[in-house]
Design brief:
Strand order of the largest sheet: 5-4-3-6-7-8-9
Distance between the termini: 39 Å
Helix content: 25-40%
Strand content: 25-35%
Structural class: alpha/beta
Number of helices: 6
């Protein structure tokens, strides 16, 4: 890609952050900066690259989507990251959210159940020199037990209920952002670990692909 194209994409990124993220109430300057820098167009198929900086979700193949920019920013903002956290992401897709997270926390462990998407994410981590994010192919509803506990968990697919293994893998004061529900009746929930129990906050409506797995929806 030539310098003119790179400049054009940088310009589009700045507009995306201004119009579709900041204008909708996202205030964390670190999130705005990260999303201004990460080249979202690389994470979508060439045929839709021209729409990468628009407001919508886009197809990435295998019946999966890259979430709309605002939702990525909103979910990350709800995590309340300080930069020191170890984060588990469920539903890597092609890795866009993981790369944004990699700039805002200490380590990202990401799980994707579709092999082609995980391979693409790994390629992009290498290409963008992201060294603190790892992806593996697995059923994300089990979490990643040998790397647990996690300070934060972010789930990019809607579950019928909060998967118990994920709750168990949160640190004592950990937080998890997860869409709950099906079809048009999904809610974005923030789960906070409180001693042995959890506290659930409703953070508004959501629209995600289903979380498929042992502790999610069956295929």
């Amino acid at each position: 890609m030539d310098a003119t194209q790179e400049r054009e994409f940088a310009h589009q990124r700045a507009l995306m952050v201004e119009r579709h993220i900041a204008a909708r109430g996202i205030k964390d300057p670190r999130i705005l900066k990260a999303m201004k820098e990460v080249p979202r167009h690389k994470f979508v198929p060439q045929v839709v690259a021209s729409k990468a900086y628009g407001p919508g979700a886009l197809p990435i193949g295998s019946k999966q989507t890259i979430s709309q920019p605002y939702i990525v920013a909103r979910m990350i903002e709800l995590l309340e990251l300080t930069g020191k956290e170890k984060v588990l992401e469920i539903g890597t897709g092609t890795g866009y959210q993981a790369v944004v997270l990699s700039r805002l926390c200490a380590k990202v462990f990401s799980i994707e159940r579709i092999n082609e998407l995980a391979l693409r994410a790994s390629e992009l981590f290498r290409e963008l020199k992201v060294y603190n994010a790892t992806v593996k192919v697995f059923d994300g509803t089990y979490g990643w037990s040998d790397q647990a506990p996690f300070d934060r968990i972010i789930v990019a697919a809607a579950a019928p209920e909060v998967p118990e293994p994920l709750v168990q893998q949160l640190t004592r004061t950990g937080k998890m952002i997860i869409p709950i529900g099906s079809g048009a009746s999904q809610k974005l929930a923030r789960i906070t670990r409180v001693g042995t129990g959890i506290q659930i906050e409703d953070c508004g409506a959501a629209d995600f692909v289903p979380l498929v797995g042992r502790f999610g929806w069956k295929e």
